[in-house]
Amino acid sequence: MGDPTATLSPTATRLLIDNLEMIVRFAGKSTGTLQTVEVHTTDPERHLALTIGVDGCSLAPSPSTSVPASPGTPDLVLPAEAFVRLVYGRLDADHAPPVTAEAALLDRLRCTFPGI
Question: For the whole model, what pTM was predicted?
Fold first, then answer.
């Protein structure tokens, strides 16, 4: 927790990525903007719909199976390990891997998941 460069092992990532729904509901804070973000993770590959509502957040499998086709959409593509750290409030700007997203999406998600 005290090491901002720490990452998750591949084994831990595979376990946590499929069990994030409850943590998203608990840790997610509404920012006042209703939004659904299609999240596509790699290693392991997952397609998730993150809904940020007025009263909180939810996460569910997404029916979408393709990587976003155009920039400017509210989609986010990143390693599963980084998405887990984002939900737990442990993905700061200085230690984030390359992601595909609209310019300010990752910053908004950091506000939505300030840490638990």
Answer: 0.86
Task: Classify each residue of 82-106 as buried b or exposed e, where b means 16 or more C-beta atoms within 10 Å of its C-beta.
Answer: bbbbbbbebbeeeeeeeeebeeebb
4, part of any domain: no
Contacts of 109 (CB under 8 A, 6+ apart): 37, 50, 76, 86
Domains of the chain: total: 1
Split the chain (116 residues) into runs of 10 and give each run's mean pLDDT: 79 95 94 88 94 92 62 73 95 86 86 91
Q: Which CATH number fits the domain that encloses residue 93? A: 3.30.1050.10
Q: Structural domain of residue 97, as residue ranges?
A: 10-109
Q: Which two tokens stand for residue 83?
A: 């998405």
Report if residue 81 sits inside a domain.
Answer: yes
End-to-end CA distance of the chain: 11
